[in-house]
């Protein structure tokens, strides 16, 4: 029987779209109907399980799933035997403590003796003991931001992204406990055949991630600017340089990192680059 790598992803919620996109952009083709809880890829030895994200670390520890995609917040909270394989650059958020907007905050000591509502009791417990704070933890599984408003707790610890939910519940963020993004987790000891499949998948994921972080750039420049421009955008090995019909000019093709893109464009223009075209890359294999 063919060995399949079992990957657990969130069935519905904030991680679902990013997880599906990542697997599909990595070339896996599978169906994901609304009621479907399990599916096998048509063109890759992978089975996908659609689960509640909170349950994924336990499934991975129990080897019911070999690999999972969860937020780092869930990985840290659940304290299961999982290894973090790779950060995935989506579902970025932070886990923060917030208090009613009207209240004064004089640093972490202000939490002494308070009651904190959260879905992350273990993370909050560690945070409080690191700061020698004695506070009560009231565990609830959702709608945490409502807790101070209904007299359930003095403060909360929950995920924040735009801050919109805090704002609309009259709360203000006072401490960032951790930053989080989606990650791939795996059982500590994968069978060699499964490890091989995972390595193959990780190679594809890397190509997808690199492509997202880079752009293909084409520009025209005077020949005497080629060296300076090459030092700014050296490309994967070196830029491609093609002479233009106009004497003394060349077309230079390279890749540029998305993160410092605009600074580099300013530098290139300063060196005399013109007619700059920037296009997305679909996959990037170094
Ligand atoms: N506002 C946000 N912005 C970015 N990422 C977020 C945000 N909220 C949550 N996340 C990330 O997405 C993960 C899933 O969030 P979601 O709200 O869908 O979970 P859930 O309600 O617990 O879902 P489930 O029903 O699967 O248990 C979180 O653990 C976190 O890592
Ligand atoms: O800072 P913001 O951009 O407002 O995002 C933060 C909110 O997003 C998440 O909930 P989600 O919307 O996923 O709903 P849920 O409570 O049903 O999980 C999280 O639990 C916060 O409540
Ligand atoms: Mg959940």
TrEMBL record:
Q: Give, as one word, the top-level EC class.
A: transferase
Residues of the Histidine biosynthesis HisG C-terminal domain: 211-283
The record's catalysed reaction(s) read: 1-(5-phospho-beta-D-ribosyl)-ATP + diphosphate = 5-phospho-alpha-D-ribose 1-diphosphate + ATP
- InterPro entries, per database record: ATP-PRT_HisG_long (IPR020621), ATP_PRibTrfase_cat (IPR013820), ATP_PRibTrfase_CS (IPR018198), ATP_PRibTrfase_HisG (IPR001348), HisG_C (IPR013115), N-reg_PII-like_a/b (IPR011322), N-reg_PII/ATP_PRibTrfase_C (IPR015867)
What activates or inhibits this protein? Feedback inhibited by histidine.
The main place the protein resides is cytoplasm
Q: Does the keyword Transit peptide apply?
A: no
Q: What cofactor does this protein call for?
A: Mg(2+)
Alphabetized GO MF terms? ATP phosphoribosyltransferase activity
Query: Domain named ATP phosphoribosyltransferase catalytic: which ranges?
Result: 52-206
Q: Which residues cross the membrane?
A: none
Q: Which UniProt keywords apply?
A: Amino-acid biosynthesis, ATP-binding, Cytoplasm, Glycosyltransferase, Histidine biosynthesis, Magnesium, Metal-binding, Nucleotide-binding, Transferase
Compartments it resides in: Cytoplasm
The record's annotation in NCBIfam families points to:
hisG, HisG_C-term
Q: Indicate the family of this protein.
A: Belongs to the ATP phosphoribosyltransferase family. Long subfamily.
Protein name listed in UniProt: ATP phosphoribosyltransferase
The source organism is Chryseosolibacter indicus
UniProt gene name: hisG
């Amino acid at each position: 029987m063919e060995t399949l790598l079992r990957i657990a992803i969130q069935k519905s919620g904030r991680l679902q779209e990013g997880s599906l996109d990542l697997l599909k952009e990595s070339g896996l083709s599978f169906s994901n109907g609304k009621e479907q809880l399990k599916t096998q890829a048509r063109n890759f030895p992978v089975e996908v399980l659609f689960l509640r994200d909170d349950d994924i670390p336990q499934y991975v520890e129990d080897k019911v799933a070999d690999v999972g995609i969860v937020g780092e917040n869930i990985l840290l909270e659940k304290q299961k035997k999982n290894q973090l394989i790779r950060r995935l650059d989506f579902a970025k958020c932070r886990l923060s403590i917030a208090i009613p907007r009207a209240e004064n905050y004089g640093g972490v000591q202000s939490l002494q003796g308070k009651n904190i509502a959260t879905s992350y009791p273990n993370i909050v417990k560690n945070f409080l003991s690191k700061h020698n704070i004695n506070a009560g933890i009231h565990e609830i599984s959702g709608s945490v931001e409502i807790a101070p408003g209904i007299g359930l707790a003095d403060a909360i610890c929950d995920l924040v992204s735009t801050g919109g939910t805090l704002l609309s519940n009259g709360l203000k963020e006072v401490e960032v406990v951790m930053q989080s993004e989606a990650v791939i987790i795996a059982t500590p000891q994968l069978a060699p055949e499964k490890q091989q499949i995972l390595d193959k998948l990780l190679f594809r994921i890397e190509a997808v991630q690199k492509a997202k972080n880079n752009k293909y750039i084409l520009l025209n420049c005077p020949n005497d600017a080629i060296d300076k421009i090459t030092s700014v955008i050296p490309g994967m090995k070196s830029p491609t340089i093609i002479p233009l019909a106009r004497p003394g000019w060349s077309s230079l093709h390279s890749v540029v990192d998305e993160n410092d893109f605009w600074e580099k464009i300013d530098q290139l223009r300063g060196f005399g680059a013109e007619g700059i075209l920037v296009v997305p890359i679909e996959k990037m294999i170094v």
